[in-house]
Amino acid sequence: MISEIELRENYEKVLKNVELHAKKVSRKPEEIKLVAVTKTQPIDVLKLALHVGINILGENYAQELRDKSKALSDFNIEWHFIGRIQTNKLKYIVPVANLIHSVYRLEEISEIDKIAKKVGKIQNVLLEVNVSGEESKGGVKLEDVREIIVRSQEFSNVRIIGLMTMAPYIEPEETRKYFRFLREARDYLNKEFPNVVELSMGMSNDYTVAIEEGSTILRIGTAIFGERLKIKG
Q: What is the CATH number of the domain that holds 214?
């Protein structure tokens, strides 16, 4: 398990990089939200993270989000769900998540709306966009994003507040064009849909480039916690 000292050093290094690359393109570091990706990390590690000042946590698995949020209910945590969505498990996600990053099907939006109504909330979500065209990645095609946003307006308890993407796992500098595509799409859509402001893009290997290209939300796991633990089974 990672030590508190190592975790703090990793976190501070990431924060310094955020500041450096934000200022490089005349952005304010405080405009960029850092989501610490805690999937497969045990509760003790999450408590260490909270102790060093990390309180925005991102989970990839619905049941893990449910269980960890219960175990840490005494702490003030902003939970993000960033993994692949299974509609039958949204019942575990919607009551907990401040933001769901990985929405891209109307069926998901419809189910989120139903559950959000039951729990009495407006669920903020991001629309996942497949900017690279890789078949292995989920997400809406760029040309279909506007239609999804328009149709989502039929659902009163879901609000699309931005876009999310995963760049190919390539050299960081080569990811720049994909992040730029998403930023340009956001800027275009924002003129018609003022709620569409957020850009969730950038992970441990490419977040510095994502910052320079306008990311407002970073999803950082390995750079903070080290190589993630393997799930047994």
A: 3.20.20.10
User: What is the mean predicted confidence (pLDDT) over 74-78?
Assistant: 97
Number of domain units in the chain = 1
Is there a contact between 115 and 88 (Cβ–Cβ < 8 Å)? no
This prediction's pTM = 0.95
Domain hosting 47: range is: 4-225
Within-domain flag for 218: yes
* HSE value, Cβ hemisphere, 13 Å, CA-based, for 1: 13
Distance (Å, whole) CA 68 – CA 88: 19
- Tell whether 230 is covered by a domain: no
Asked whether residue 135 is assigned to any structural domain, the reply reads yes
Residue 229 has pLDDT above 80, yes or no: no
Residues 179, 161: Cα–Cα separation, whole Å: 17
Banded model confidence at residue 228, pLDDT cuts 50, 70, 90: low
- The tens digit of pLDDT for each residue in 8-43 reads 999 999 999 999 999 999 999 999 999 999 999 999
d(CA 164, CA 219): 10
Per-chain mean pLDDT for the chain: 95
Q: Express each pLDDT in 102-123 by its tens digit.
A: 999 999 999 999 999 999 999 9
